[in-house]
Amino acid sequence: MATESPKIKIAIIGGGIAGLSLLFGLLKHPHLEPTLYEAGPEIAGDEGAGIGLAVNALKALELIDPELRKAVLRADSVALSMPVAKMMMADVDHLYYGKELLEVSARDEKNGGVLFQRSKFISELFKLVPSTSCRTNKKLSRVSEHEKGVTLYFEDGTQEEVDALIGGDGIHSNVKKHVLRDVPGNWDSFFCHQYFYVALIPMAKGKEVLGDQYLNTLCQFCWLGKDNFLIHDPCNNGETLQLIAVNSTGETWDSKEWTREKSLSDLKSDLSGAGDLGMGFYELLSSQQQPLTVRSTWEHPPTPTYSSGRSGILGDAAHAMQPWQAAGAGQAIEDAMILSTLFSEVKAASEVPSALKAYTEIRRDRTQYVQRMSQEMGTFLLGDSNLVKDVDAFRKIILGRWDEMWYFDLEGHRKQAIELMKAS
């Protein structure tokens, strides 16, 4: 009588979108035993942040499992109309003040992407997985890798033995430090000299203050200012308006600083030069709980690998990027899609390093291309608005930058990943 092979134990560190998507994808395969470990007391997204998923991210969710695409709909998401975004001039001193600079549209009018509140989507993802597969209050402190597996040490004094470790533990990832422990160089994330205010307010209040000229359409509006950039978009089935005000700064932030407090005078200064729109943002943002809190933007230097032995990283832990192409969450979901595909082919624990090596090889170039494009876009958009002297030239720089991200052949990407794994 043949003995059944032991299940392959996989630890996922971090309960964000990427970690939960990967967990769901791995649970489909009976030969895998994945468990997600979250440092916090519960698995929940940030209440004050909305995010967008473009067509590539929605396709990646579907390739993991159609149920994940349905979870987007249940998260009170807003399906963007055409165009999906408009870029306007907010600098009152600029020749084009108040005028439209360009529109960004998807190829398919019925599939332009979605906007939703991050916490609602994470809540929907969490409903799809058994609670026994998620463990909270488990902050990873140390990793030890050996010939037969990986030992995880948690701050509560407990430890776990697993066959594979996947870190989705964010930009200051402990798993990343383990994966890159023997790689020369400094791979720490760095502050991008940008911070942003963010608020979710009732759409009715937004229309009362800002007017409804730009709020009656399911579209993201982006306003180019002088050293600042303002965004407003709908979420929660269009009942909520998200406001984001981004500013460049010469300040130095410590790696442990995610947020800082700002005064109302700071807010007014940061919104100066944006005319009536800036004053409308000021009225709405200043009505939020005081003191105001701004959040920082960080990114990784491009790293030479996303894996080492039996350990790998995904999402922000692997390639944290600036938000200027709205692509970070989508790339994390693509990572989860490739990892779930590769692990579906892993039949013995000894094959884990080959799967993770193939993951690095297939994902590094694509994610770092998107990372580079996002960084360049930040330079274009959060700089001197006088760079926009010729709208036609500006459009040529900006338009087309999404095509390779949105319309990438993800099914071919999966096939190539499996081929790489089998060839190693």
TrEMBL record:
<keyword id="KW-0560">Oxidoreductase</keyword>
<dbReference type="InterPro" id="IPR051104">
    <property type="entry name" value="FAD_monoxygenase"/>
</dbReference>
<dbReference type="GO" id="GO:0044550">
    <property type="term" value="P:secondary metabolite biosynthetic process"/>
</dbReference>
<dbReference type="Pfam" id="PF01494">
    <property type="entry name" value="FAD_binding_3"/>
</dbReference>
<keyword id="KW-0274">FAD</keyword>
<feature type="domain" description="FAD-binding">
    <location>
        <begin position="304"/>
        <end position="371"/>
    </location>
</feature>
<keyword id="KW-0285">Flavoprotein</keyword>
<dbReference type="GO" id="GO:0016491">
    <property type="term" value="F:oxidoreductase activity"/>
</dbReference>
<dbReference type="InterPro" id="IPR036188">
    <property type="entry name" value="FAD/NAD-bd_sf"/>
</dbReference>
<dbReference type="GO" id="GO:0071949">
    <property type="term" value="F:FAD binding"/>
</dbReference>
<dbReference type="InterPro" id="IPR002938">
    <property type="entry name" value="FAD-bd"/>
</dbReference>
<protein>
    <submittedName>
        <fullName>6-methylsalicylic acid decarboxylase atA</fullName>
    </submittedName>
</protein>
